Every structure is written in structure tokens, then in C-alpha cells.
Amino acid sequence: MLDEPKGFASTPLDWMVSVLEVSVLIAVPLMIAFAAWNWRRVLTDRRYSVGVCVFVAGVLAIVILSAVYDPGRVWHWFWD
């Protein structure tokens, strides 16, 4: 497998990754702010706690896959 194939247009993919990175920087503080603002509802309603747990599990999965378990160094290539 080549590192940079000649026929693959990677500019749209790079742009999408940049947009996702910026949106995460906006979405995470908003989610924390809304959870802190409605802390009583978060504690009493199970639907919110399930959503928070799914979010935390997703972040942990990304950290584990990108930092700890990367046998083919695919994530290192992707984040480069």
C-alpha cells in the first residue's frame, strides 16, 4: 500500500477532518455547560445518563485506539 496514491484526492477528506475537529472543540464545552446547567435533570432522568455514558465510552474508545492499540499505525497516519 502506498502512502500517497496519485489518483486519490485527499483534500476533501482533510477538510472534513478539520471541520470535525473544530466542531468537537465547540460541542464538548457546550455539552458540559448544558449538563452543568441541568444537573438535577441529568441526575434524575436515565436517558441523559445513558447519553453521557455513550459519549464517554466513545471518547475513551478513540483515545485507546489512537494512543494505545495501533498495531498498523493507522491512526498515526490518519492524524498526521
Describe the structure.
This protein is mostly helical. It has a domain at 43-80. 78% of the residues lie in helices and 0% in strands. The two termini are 17 Å apart. The mean pLDDT is 77.
Mean pLDDT: 77
The helix tally amounts to 4
Radius of gyration computed on alpha carbons: 17 Å
Largest sheet: none
Please state roughly what percent of the residues sit in beta strands, choosing from under 5%, 5-15%, 15-25%, 25-35%, 35-45% or over 45%: under 5%
Q: How many beta-strand runs?
A: 0
Order of helices and strands: HHHH
Proportion of helical residues: over 70%
- Return residue spans where pLDDT drops below 50 for at least 5 consecutive residues: none
Q: Features of this protein?
A:
mainly alpha, 4 helices, elongated, single chain, 80 residues
Question: Topology, pairings included?
Answer:
Elements lengths: L10 H27 L1 H6 L1 H23 L5 H6 L1
At a glance:
The chain is an all-alpha fold and 80 residues long. The protein contains four helices and no strands.
